[in-house]
Structures are given as structure tokens and as C-alpha cells.
Amino acid sequence: MKRPLIAVTQRVSLVPEYAERRDALDQRWTAFLAEAGYLPLLLPNQPQVALELLNALKPQGLLLTGGNSLTQYGGDAPERDDCEQMLLEFALEQDLPVIGVCRGMQVLLEHFGQVFEPVSGHVTANQTIQYLEQNIEVNSYHNWGCKQAPKGFTIQAQSPDGVIKAVRHQQLALLGLMWHPERLSPFATRDLELFQQFFSHRSVR
């Protein structure tokens, strides 16, 4: 049985000794997606090339991964900001489900006007949060966050200090997570099932 494709964005990694700006992805993402039943389609941080890949190969969903702060919050990868904004606009036009992880969730919320503030205590391998009225253990690797979500988003998870850890749009096919499911070993069944359920159809309406 042919596995469906999930388009995946990549971080920009600066390599000064070679004067290169490289697109890079943690190998654990490909392992996570494979275990969930998908094949990753790695997108370059070149908007027109990435869009051409989406149009040509018709993936089942889009995954905005972590890494690189947004430029307005000190990040150094403006080309990634531009590319992911264009990809998100394309996904919204095509009703393509989008999951944003860490930076990816911030991309989703920023697109709808959210402003972020510095947060402390959110870089840790273990953090207890309330997710859908249950306490779960996750990891956390971010220094920017928010305690309110833009109109249209439902807050699904928060840390004890009120920082939002997961959101889902009420009408659009958008899901955001502030933890990294790919960094857990073994992968959490709840995360695998969440990706499977969310990407299993073209719309969450």
C-alpha cells in the first residue's frame, strides 16, 4: 500500500566554515512520520520551488517543523519565514491540513496576528501540562510564548504558568503543538495517533 506524502519544512542551518546556508531536518522526523504511516516530502526554503513540489506531488498535509526563531523575535532565517508564510497561505487556499510544531505553531498564530513574549522555564526535557483536561508529560524547547490565542483558535493545552502548548482552529485545518513529538523515545502513541487522525482527511470542518 502506497504511503501518503506529508510535506515537511526544514530549519536553516548556518555553516560559516563553508559560507553555506543549509536546509536541514532532524532524522527523527522522518522516523516519526514513517512510524505514523507517512512518507516525508522535504521542502527547500525557496518558496517557488516548494510550491511547485506541492502542486506536482499533492501531499496529504503540511508539517511546519521547529528550529529558527521568527525573524522579529531574533531569528536569522528570513528566507524560512517567507517560505513558510507562502506555504501556509497555499495550504489555507487548498484546504490542506497543517500541523505546526514549536516554531511551526508560532508561524500559525503569528499569521493570525498573535504577538509573543519571552517565557522562562520552557526549555526542558520533561514538563507536565494540561492537555484536553488531562495531565501529560511532554518536552519543551522554546523561549517565546503566549497565554492567549487569536480569534478562531481553541486552546487545547497549557502549562501551569498559563503558556499555551497546543491549539486547534475551530473551522480551518490547523493544529499547533509546542512540544516535539519526534524527540521522544519511543514515540508517544498519543502523538502518532494525533498525526494520523489529523492528516487522515482533507478538512477538520
What features would you describe in this structure?
- This protein is of the alpha/beta class and 205 residues long.
- It has a single domain, classed as 3-Layer(aba) Sandwich (Rossmann fold), CATH 3.40.50.
- The chain is 28% helix and 31% strand.
- It contains 5 helices and 13 strands.
- It has helices at residues 27-36, 47-57, 78-94, 103-111, 189-199, and strands at 5-8, 11-15, 20-24, 39-42, 61-64, 98-101, 117-118, 123-131, 134-141, 144-145, 153-158, 164-169, 174-177.
- It has a 9-stranded mixed beta sheet, sandwiched between helices. It has a two-stranded antiparallel sheet with strand order 2-3.
- Helix 1 packs across helix 5 and helix 2 (47-57) packs parallel to helix 3.
- The longest helix is centred in the middle third of the chain and has 17 residues, at 78-94.
- The model has no long low-confidence stretch (mean pLDDT 96).
